Amino acid sequence: MEQITVENLAEKLNLECLGGKAGLHHTVKGVYISDLLSDVVGHARESDVWVTLHTHVNIVAVATLKNLSAIIITGGRVPDKETIAACDAQQIPVLVTQHSTFHLAGQLYRLLASNEEF
Amino acid sequence: MVFSISQAFVRYIRKMEKFSFQISGGDYQNIGYVSNTIKKILNTRKISAVNSRRIAVSIFEVETNIILYARRGTIEIELDNSSVVVAANDEGKGIENVWLAMQEGYTTANEEIRRLGFGAGLGLSNINNNADILWISSKVNIGTCLILVFLI
Predict the structure, then answer these.
(1) ipTM of the complex
(2) With left for phi above 0 and alpha for psi between -120 and 50, is residue A102 left, alpha or beta?
(3) For residue A3, what pLDDT is reported?
(4) Structural domains of chain B, ranges and CATH numbers in brackets
(5) What's the CA gap between A33 and A39, in Å, rounded?
(6) Residues 51-90, chain A, touching B (beta carbon < 8 A)
(7) What pLDDT, on the 0 to 100 scale, is given for residue A2?
């Protein structure tokens, strides 16, 4: 299966990119869903998309540390302006959706589960 | 015996490249600064991705703990071709029971810390899972000292 980029995800799942657009070409190799930052730091894998409900700037530090491909914030929450600025600086796309984490997880699973690398 | 070993250790680390950071308690905005800075430095050296990842993850937890729980602290990182040593000292509330604090899920975090997604009781166990040697010394209401050694 061909590689999926953050941009592909955004188009297919109708996600709005609010920052870090320079990183939209990042390849997505998997998904990690957690709202405990130390859990993400401990267990997310490189090039994962991270789904969270946190909006504060610390999520960008975590994503940078783990070389994550993008951050998706669920439930219609909006990232802080410091978060958007940090995403721009680190070139990590931050995307938002009105859907709940559960709904988005289902969409992501349907889209990515057939990918061998997933 | 202890004296001669520590003298040898001091002589050894004197030859290493050193980086030093001052950390302010409560400076939430800067969580991740030290670890991401060191990660960038390590990526310019002949250090494998696995090693640079586990070192960066551990330093992230160390700096997070100082910012969340201490008044102020320092993190010193020393490296050469075979090892990375991280020494963190803080002035703060200290750890009452180190054994308990090492248990995954144990936390003393308040509501504010938890709201940010920290304080799940995973920090010290993340460090323990990633460092080759972890030494902790702490005194309540004085502070905490951590030394981490990574063999690379």
Answers:
(1) 0.90
(2) alpha
(3) 87
(4) 24-151 (3.30.565.10)
(5) 10
(6) 52, 54, 56-62, 64-66, 82
(7) 72
